[in-house]
Amino acid sequence: MRIILSLLSLSFILSFNSFDGDAAFNYMQQQCDLGPRFPGSEAHNILTAKLYDHFIQFSDTVLVFKDSILHPKTKESMQIKNLLIKHNISSSERYLFMAHYDTRDRADKDHNPSNHNKPIIGANDGASGVALLMQLSKQIKSLDLKNIGVDILLVDAEDMGRPGHLNEWGLGTQSFTKNYKGVLPKYAICVDMIADKNPIFKIEHFSYQFAKELVNEIWTLANNLGYKEFVWQLSKPIYDDHVYFYNGTSVPSIDIIDFDYPHWHTIDDTIENCSSQGLFIVGNVLLQFIYNKDQP
User: Fold this and answer.
1) pLDDT tens across 37-56, in order?
2) How many Cβ atoms are within 10 Å of 164's Cβ, its own excluded?
3) CA dihedral 35, 41, 47, 53 (to 10 degrees)
4) E strand or H helix at 225, and its extent?
5) How far apart are CA 215 and CA 139, in angstroms?
6) For residue range 250-291, what is the model confidence (pLDDT) as tens digits?
7) What is the sign, positive or negative, of the torsion defined by CA atoms of 46, 109, 29, 15?
8) How far apart are CA 277 and CA 282, in angstroms?
C-alpha cells in the first residue's frame, strides 16, 4: 500500500504539475537582458524591483531586508537588499529555498586578462537559481499548501569577494542570518549554477557535512524520478550561501550546484551557454519534495 501511494503522489506531480523549465529559462533571459546586475548598478536596482513585483503575485508576503556593506575590493559603502518570500505563512513547519540574485562585477576567471575588470552577465551564476525560484513560487501557489510553509530567500551581495577571503563572500546571507528574528526553517536548500547544457549534480562536500540526511533524501528522490544527473559522488567544498546560512542559524543546509560549468566568472557566462534541462530537472525534484512534505 505504501508503494502504491508513493506512485500515486509521483504521478500527480509528473502528469499534472511538472515543473516548467522553459518558463524558468525565459525568466533567465529576462534577467540577462538587463545586463550585469552587481550591487550598485542600475540593472541591479531594476531587477530588485522586478523580483518584488513578481513574487508578490504568488506568495503571502515579500519582506525586504536592507543593510549597508563595504565592497570587499573597493571599500565603497553600498546598500544591499535581501528578499524573503513566504508561502502559507501560518505554518510553523517551514522549508527554505535560496539563491543569490547579484552577479559578479569582474570576470577575474576569464582566459583573457583584458576582461578581468569587466562585469559578467551571470546567466548561470546568478540568473539560473533565481529563475528556478521564480517559477517554483508560481507553481507552489497552485499546490495550495496545507501543512507546511515554504520560504524563498533571494540574497544579495553573494559574489563580491576576493579569492582566499572567505568572509567576503555571501555577504547578503551573513547579513540576513544576523538580523532575521522570524521562524527558522527545518531545512535550507540553495540552488546555484544549475543551467549548464550538460548538468551534473555531485554532492557538495559541506552539504554532506551539514545535512547528510537531507542530501540522501534529495538525491534518492531525484534518482527515483529518473534523473541520473544527480550522482552519488562527493565534490570539493564550495563556499556558497548554504555555508553562511548554516553558520548563522545551524539549520541543516545543502547546495544543489553544478560547479563544473566552464564559464564561471568569465564574460562567457551568457544565456547562449545555458539550457533549460537543469532547470527542469532540479525544479521537478524540488516540486516533488515540497509535495511530499505537505502530505498529512
Assistant:
1) 999 999 999 999 999 999 99
2) 6
3) -160
4) none
5) 23
6) 999 999 999 999 999 999 999 999 999 999 999 999 999 999
7) negative
8) 9
Residue 16 banded pLDDT, cuts 50, 70, 90: very low
Picking from 260, 255, 257, 261, the residue whose alpha carbon sits closest to that of residue 241 is 255
171-179 and 241-249 helices, crossing angle to 10°: 20
Sign of the CA dihedral with 17 first, then 18, 21, and 22 last: negative
Q: Give CA–CA dist 100/112, Å, rounded.
A: 26
- Three-state DSSP state, 237: coil
The answer to whether 118 and 11 are in contact (CB under 8 A) is: no
Which domains are assigned to the chain? 2-294 (3.40.630.10)
Instruction: Give the three-class secondary structure for 266.
Output: coil
Residue 248 host element (H or E): helix 241-249
Q: How far apart are the first and last CA of the chain?
A: 16
Model confidence at 126, in pLDDT bands (50, 70, 90)? very high
CA distances from 74 to 52, 160, 161 (A): 28, 10, 11
Among 23, 81, 25, 24, CA closest to 49 = 81
- Counted residue by residue, the chain has a size of 296
